[in-house]
Design the sequence.
C-alpha cells in the first residue's frame, strides 16, 4: 500500500509546483543531499524547499502518491532534466536565467534572507 507524501515546504522564491513533493538529485561530486530548509534544484529542473525529512525510496517498492511526475522521470532515467523556461536576465544580478525574475542563486539567497528574518 502506497502512502501520500506532503508537498515541499512553501517559499515565495520556489519555482516548482507547490501541490506536489519534489525530489532532489544528488550529483556524485556533491556526495551529500541539500540541507533541509534550503531552496535547491529538483529533478524536474525547478527550485523547491528541501523538507525536514527525506523520503526513503526503496528499489522495487511502489513510489508514494503525491510525487512530481518530472522528478520521477528524472529518477527513473537517472538524469536531471534541463529547465526549458524562457531565458532572461536576473533582475537582481543580471545573470541569465530560465527561472523567471530571479536566477537560482539569487532565489536561494532571497529565501535564506526571508527564513532568517522570520526567526
Sequence:
Amino acid at each position: 500500500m502506497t502512502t501520500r507524501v506532503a508537498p515541499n515546504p512553501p517559499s515565495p522564491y520556489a519555482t516548482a509546483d507547490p501541490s506536489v513533493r519534489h525530489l532532489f538529485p544528488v550529483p556524485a561530486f556533491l556526495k551529500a543531499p541539500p540541507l533541509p530548509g534550503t531552496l535547491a534544484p529538483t529533478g524536474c529542473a525547478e527550485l523547491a524547499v528541501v523538507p525536514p525529512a527525506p523520503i526513503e525510496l526503496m528499489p522495487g517498492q511502489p513510489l508514494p502518491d503525491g510525487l512530481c511526475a518530472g522528478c520521477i522521470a528524472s529518477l527513473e532515467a537517472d538524469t536531471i532534466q534541463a529547465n526549458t523556461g524562457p531565458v532572461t536576465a536576473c533582475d537582481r544580478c543580471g545573470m541569465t536565467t530560465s527561472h523567471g525574475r530571479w536566477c537560482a542563486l539569487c532565489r536561494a539567497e532571497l529565501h535564506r534572507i526571508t527564513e532568517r528574518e522570520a526567526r
User: Anything to note?
Assistant: DSSP finds two helices and four strands in the chain. Strands lie at 39-41, 47-49, 88-89, 96-97. The CA atoms of residues 13 and 107 lie 5 Å apart. The mean pLDDT is 90.
